[in-house]
Design brief:
47% of the residues lie in helices and 14% in strands. It is of the alpha/beta class. The protein has a single domain, classed as Rossmann fold, CATH 3.40.50. The chain has a 7-stranded parallel beta sheet, sandwiched between helices. The structure holds NADP nicotinamide-adenine-dinucleotide phosphate (NAP). The site of NADP nicotinamide-adenine-dinucleotide phosphate has 31 residues, from helix 1, strand 2 and helix 7.
């Protein structure tokens, strides 16, 4: 997969799946902008790890609409154009309905939807203004197996990802006439900070056994799926949701 001369913005690109995706795009010739919320050191380390030149980090809390708009001004100002948007940033907060207070319940739902869904929707809006003008573009959303399988202790997360899937399908239909294509990846558990507590805790072994491979995904494996959907020749896959879960949850 060759992304020479392409420009890419990866939200939540400072750690985990976003970092692996930035490394894969940079290794395939792209110029990469990574967005992060607060961890400057992780963002700097990621930028320093990228092959090639012209990469940079942009801080923005995606749960604020103005911050998203500002992030795009910086990215377009620096790159001149944006070919590929990866909506990867996300949060995963524990809030079992039987255990949390009503206040906490509301707060987690708002925080989760603001980042995982509305942040991604606003990023799509801002990117599309430029992509339509440029005559082409790609958007890849990072969803989750939890959208299909359920998230009993993180219901807002499961709902945010199910909504993200539906958003991707709708935008694929709306944007195909503009030569803008939209794909979604839906990973199961991945070895990142987000999943660390679960993978290192009592449930770790049980989680790994969900896959007949007896392990969870590596960030690089999810990155590969993202690059595939963003690559030339996959245009007719627009609207697709690609499972990356080691056969831990199969749907047909
Ligand atoms: P991670 O290691 O926790 O990294 C999250 C990234 O998102 C960080 O770069 C973080 O920046 C950024 N971020 C979080 N909230 C943000 C906000 N409001 N504005 C801007 N950036 C924000 O997560 P990950 O495991 O790589 O997950 C990446 C994506 O994959 C998420 O959408 C997640 O839901 C999805 N996913 C993960 C798994 C898994 O098991 N790990 C499974 C399925 C799907 P800071 O560090 O600066 O806060």
């Amino acid at each position: 997969m060759d992304f020479t001369e392409k420009t890419v913005l990866i939200t939540g690109g400072s750690r985990g799946i976003g970092r692996a995706t930035a490394q894969a795009f940079a290794g395939s010739g792209a110029r990469v902008a990574i967005n992060f919320r607060s961890d400057h050191d992780a963002a700097r380390e990621t930028i320093e790890s990228l092959a090639g030149e012209g990469h940079f980090a942009v801080r923005a809390d995606l749960s604020h609409a103005q911050a998203v708009e500002q992030m795009f001004k910086v990215v377009i100002g620096e790159f001149g154009r944006l070919d590929i948007l990866i909506n990867n940033a996300g949060i995963f907060k524990l809030h079992p309905i039987t255990e949390v207070s009503y206040d906490e319940w509301q707060q987690v739902w708002r925080d989760t939807l603001d980042t995982n869904l509305i942040g991604a929707a606003n990023a799509c809006y801002c990117a599309v203004q430029h992509m339509i003008q440029a005559g082409s573009g790609r958007i890849i959303n990072v969803s989750s197996r939890g959208a299909f399988r359920g998230e009993p202790d993180q219901p807002a997360y499961g709902a945010s990802k199910a909504a993200m899937n539906a958003m991707g399908q709708s935008l694929a239909q709306a944007l195909a006439p503009h030569n803008v294509f939209v794909g979604t990846v839906a990973p199961g558990f991945v070895e990142t900070d987000m999943a660390k507590d679960w993978l290192e805790g009592d449930e770790g072994e049980q989680i790994r056994k969900q896959s007949p491979l007896h392990r969870v995904a590596r960030p690089e494996e999810v990155a590969r799926g993202i690059l595939f959907l963003a690559s030339e020749g996959t245009e007719f896959m627009t609207g697709a949701i690609l499972d990356i879960n080691g056969a831990s949850y199969l749907r047909s």
